[in-house]
Write a structure and sequence with these properties.
There is one protein chain. With 489 residues, this protein is of the alpha/beta class. It folds into 2 domains: 29 residues; 376 residues. It is 15% helix and 39% strand. It is built from 3 helices and 44 strands. It has a 13-stranded parallel sheet with strand order 4-6-8-11-14-17-21-25-29-32-35-39-42. A 9-stranded parallel sheet has the order 10-13-16-20-24-28-31-34-38, with no helix packed on it. A hairpin with a 2-residue loop joins strand 43 and strand 44.
Amino acid sequence: MRRSTRSLALLAAAVLTLAMMSPALAHSSQDDRRGGGPQQEDRRAEAERDRRDSRNRTDRDRRDRRARDGRLAFAVNVTHDTVAANIGDGKCADASGQCSLRAAVQESNAASSPAVIKLDAKVYQLTIAGAGENEAARGDLDITGDVVVDGRGATIDAAGLDRAFDVQGGSLWLQKVTLTGGAPSAGEGGGAVRSTGTLSLKRVHLTANAVTGDGASGGAVLNDGGVLHAEHSEMRNNTAIRAGGAIEAVAGTTNLDRVVLAENHTGPAPGNGGGLHLTGAGAVTVTNSVVVRNTATAEGGGLWNSATGTMDVRHSRVNGNVASGGDADQGGGGLYNDGGLLTVSGGQVKGNAADGAAGSGGGILNNEGTLVVSSTVIAGNSAKRAGGGIEAVAGTTELDRVRLAGNNTGPAPGNGGGLHLTGAGAVTVTNSVVVGNTATAEGGGLWNSATGTMTVTHTVIRNNHAPEGPDVYNDGGTFLVDGEPVPVG
């Protein structure tokens, strides 16, 4: 009986306590339903902390991955031209929080590691004027870091404002992008890109860029003592006043692999190297490429090599180019060698022209340099003065397994339909074919000068045409065909 009384007393106390707490519990429940209770606020704060921690972990993971890859990555999400709001914070963001191409370049330059800029298949037009500035804030996009631009089909239009990129000692890799509308200040080179660093182009189109004013060279690209490597790319319809309608290389190293140089133009001051021009002691290699329909006001409609340069053209087509220089040592419709070493192998030089008043070397003009041609077809070229296929002005010219066919000269005066030697040079022709060439005056196939030496062995010479010396003509020098001297006149 005492146990039952004690139990009833405990139950009554519990009911009384619950009754006293019920208003506060009811109030708390209402606050929770309204979202304003302390417990709900605590839960929201805790959830926000979790989300923030998660974002931070994600950012750290991304930074760690980029650090492992050695690259930062910026995805451009607007096409308009704006600057970065806070350069060096590692974020590509303009004042409105958007990532523009210019802002991405500025952040990439500020980064301590290489950076990748990703574009979309849209047009990105430069609109912030101000040439001559070197921080990518105005005019062209200056590159001082190590930057990759993955265009993914994008077009960057400089819109006549300046060139598109200026690589100032850093490195720039461009891929799957078109550069157009480049036009730097008068007298400056590199219509689309000027580079003193390392420039790599892969699947890049450079079109309708131009440089103007005295000394302006490199309608598309100026490689100023740096390294240029281009592959699977095309440079078309670019122009330069001085030289290098598409590319001007000032010393340095230039490598083209499976590149198209088409319909580029130089002139008139002086107008050399319609497709590519090398100045100084540089090295140029052109492999598996196409050099077509380029024009030069003076020399080297397709390619032009310097007095101290080395140019190696392999397995390439140099076709349909024109050089219009009017002097006897000008021309070189396809290629011009100004005293350096020019090697041509495993390709073709066809349908080029030296159409100036006394233009020479419709296919190739070797001006006091060393020319080595092997396993190459030189056909259908023409020159007004001499050397429909090849004009050699002194120097050394070596042909091995070369087909000289269907070239022609005339009428000023029109000598050496296939090959013409001027001055005290040396020419050797070995294991070759000289056929179907035409000269208006002398030497339908081969023409040797009064002071020249020409040696021909194991070579077919036939069906060439000229009023004097249909196949060969010797103007007084030493001319041997398989050991037999060719008479003078």
